[in-house]
Amino acid sequence: MFLYIFWSFFAVLILMALGLTYKIAQTDMRRRIIPDGYLFPLLIIGVIVTTFYPWPVQIESGAVGMAFGYMLAAVVGLIFDKILTHKDPNAESPIGMGDIKLISVGGLWCGPTGLAIALVLACAFGATWAYRKKQKFIPFAPFFVIGGFLSLITITFLI
C-alpha cells in the first residue's frame, strides 16, 4: 500500500510539472515573460523529485546542474547585454531573468549532462524557428522545454 501511494504521488508530481512547463512555454510564447509563479513551483517539485525519487538525476547532480545553469546563463546574458548596450543604450537584453531562472531549474531536473543536451537542442530549435520566421528575438522557453524533455528521455533511456 505504501509503494502505491509513493508512486502515485510521483505521478501527480510529474503531471504537475508537465502542466507548469506547458504554462511556462505558452506564457513566454504569447507575452515574452516567464512568471515566477510557474517557475518556483517547478523548482519545488524538482527538489522533491530529485530528493526522494531516483529519476531522472540525484539531488547532488541536480544541484550542480542548477548552479552551472544559472552561472552560464547569467554570464551569457551579461555578455549579450554589454554588447547590445554598448552599441545602443536603449536596446533590450535578449536574455531575461526568467530565461536564466528557467535554465537553472532545468539544470536541477536534468543535471549538468542533461542541461548541456537541453541547451544544445533548444538553441538549434530556436535558431531554426527564428530563421524560418525571420525574427531577431525569440521566446526561448518553448524551445528549452522541448530540449529539456528530449534531454530527460535521452538521459533516462540512453545514458
**Between the first and last Cα atoms, what is the distance in angstroms?**
32 Å
* Global morphology: elongated
- The chain-level structural class is mainly alpha
| Count of the separate structural domains | 1
Number of strands: 0
- Average pLDDT figure: 91
pLDDT < 50 stretches: none
Radius of gyration: 16 Å
**H/E order of the elements?**
HHHHH
Helix content: over 70%
What summary fits the major beta sheet? none
Strand percentage lies at: under 5%
Give the secondary structure arrangement, pairings included.
Layout: H1 2-31, H2 36-52, H3 59-87, H4 97-133, H5 140-157
Short summary of the structure?
The chain has 5 helices and no strands.
Structure explained in plain terms:
It is a single chain. This protein has 159 residues and is an all-alpha fold. It has one domain (2-157). The chain has helices at residues 2-31, 36-52, 59-87, 97-133, 140-157. The longest helix is centred in the last third of the chain and has 37 residues, at 97-133.
